[in-house]
């Protein structure tokens, strides 16, 4: 979906396909048919943006076979879909029964992360619509915080500088600009937007910036205005933003609130949980750890890294951090010029919701994704952006 900002620039809105498990190119083609096109039809649009997730095997198939890349581009066009952004965070196995910590490997100290991201950049350059010259790729925020010493930090910085040089060469060769965005996430080396400033300044290249995920922002109790102001002062570009909402529990000391939270403690994904205290942010790596005894102070609200559907907040006594998303979006695109032109709804946890809230079949999932995009569209038009055909 495309929108005209009051300054005349185009803002793109997509939904991320990491909600659909697919490890191979055949799987990607099937999800375009089975999921993405049905969502587009529900929205009544001739064209729908998707934030494509390409696992290792799918990316390699596309970067080594020009015919396969042309075939994917043709299939996107045939189904009324377009791609201006990729989710390059998960490497493989994102649809596995247990993902947890594995999503953080390989990290940016591993040469395979550089090679995979460079391959994604070449693929994206070949998928961009004819009238679009800039693409974006979100990636993990350097590494999970453990086993990350000074030597690995320098290796990661060198890898990002090398990537920036390759992206420069790619634009010189084909005239398409691809930028890569570190996506701060709780528990990682870069947990907050402020944590991103030093390593990105050290890399020192405007092709490497930040992806503001509004669920992660909220989970870490960051103020959107303060966070974005800090990035602007530091000259760190917001390459893209993922529109998502975290799970919020206002009174976690109450037994009924704990019981409601326990329904969201599930075995597939990591649900880092945080609370703000007078001594600073406190947290656990997963929701079940927070619920176990007194692992986390419960005098104030808890927020958990669980991407809940944007249009359907959990039932009381829980809610979502949609207000944080709304506040961030106002700052991102509500001003005289957009801070980013790539927006991506990223609710990948539909099948990890409590059983009674999960979609039953493809049709209900398509209905839910379409409802999320409708909410995002309404937020954008309320900010003065005009939806384009």
Helix/strand/pairing category: alpha/beta
Mean pLDDT: 97
Based on CA inertia axes, which overall geometry fits? Answer: globular
Number of strands: 15
What is the H/E string?
EEHEHHEHEHEHEHHEEHEEHEEHEHE
Sheet of most strands:
8 strands, parallel, barrel
**Uncertain residue ranges:** none
Which strands sit side by side, in order, in the main sheet?
2-3-4-5-6-7-8-14
What is the CA-based Rg, rounded? 20 Å
In which range does the helix fraction lie? 40-55%
Termini separation comes to: 8 Å
* Strand coverage percent: 15-25%
Number of discrete helical segments:
12
Description of the structure:
By secondary structure, the chain is α/β, with parallel strands linked by helices. The protein has twelve helices and 15 strands. It has helices at 25-43, 56-64, 66-78, 111-127, 150-174, 193-203, 214-219, 224-234, 255-262, 287-291, 322-333, 362-382; strands at 2-4, 10-16, 48-52, 81-87, 134-139, 177-182, 208-213, 238-243, 245-249, 273-277, 280-284, 302-308, 318-320, 342-345, 386-387.
């Amino acid at each position: 979906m495309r929108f005209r900002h009051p300054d005349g620039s185009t803002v793109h809105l997509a939904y991320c396909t990491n909600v659909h498990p697919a490890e191979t190119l055949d799987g990607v083609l099937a999800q375009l048919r089975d999921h993405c096109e049905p969502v587009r039809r529900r929205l009544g649009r001739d064209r729908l943006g998707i934030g494509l997730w390409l696992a290792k095997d799918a990316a390699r198939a596309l970067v080594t076979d020009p015919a396969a890349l042309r075939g994917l581009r043709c299939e996107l066009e045939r189904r009324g879909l377009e791609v201006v952004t990729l989710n390059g965070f998960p490497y493989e196995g994102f649809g596995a029964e247990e993902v947890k910590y594995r999503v953080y490997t390989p990290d940016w100290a591993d040469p395979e992360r550089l090679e995979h991201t460079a391959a994604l950049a070449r693929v994206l350059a070949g998928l961009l619509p004819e009238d679009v010259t800039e693409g974006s790729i979100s990636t993990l925020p350097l590494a999970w915080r453990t086993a990350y010493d000074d030597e690995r930090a320098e290796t990661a910085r060198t890898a990002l500088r090398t990537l920036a040089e390759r992206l420069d060469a790619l634009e010189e060769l084909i005239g398409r600009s691809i930028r890569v965005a570190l996506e701060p996430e709780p528990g990682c080396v870069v947990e907050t937007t402020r944590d991103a400033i030093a390593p990105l300044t050290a890399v020192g290249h405007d092709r490497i910036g930040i992806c503001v995920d509004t669920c992660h922002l909220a989970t870490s109790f960051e103020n959107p205005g303060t966070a974005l102001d800090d990035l602007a002062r530091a000259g760190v570009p917001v390459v893209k933003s993922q529109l998502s909402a975290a799970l919020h529990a206002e009174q976690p000391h109450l037994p009924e609130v704990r019981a409601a939270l326990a329904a969201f403690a599930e075995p597939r994904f990591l649900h880092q949980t945080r609370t703000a205290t007078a001594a600073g942010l406190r947290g656990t790596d997963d929701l079940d750890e927070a619920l176990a005894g007194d692992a986390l102070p419960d005098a104030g609200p808890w927020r958990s890294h669980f991407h809940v559907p944007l249009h359907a907040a959990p039932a009381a006594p829980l809610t979502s951090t949609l207000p944080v998303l709304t506040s961030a979006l106002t700052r991102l695109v509500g001003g005289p010029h957009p801070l980013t032109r790539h927006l991506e709804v990223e609710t990948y946890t539909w099948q990890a919701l409590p059983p009674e809230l999960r979609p039953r079949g493809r049709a209900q999932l398509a209905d839910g994704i379409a409802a999320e995009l409708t909410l995002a569209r309404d937020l954008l038009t309320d900010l003065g952006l005009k939806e384009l055909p």
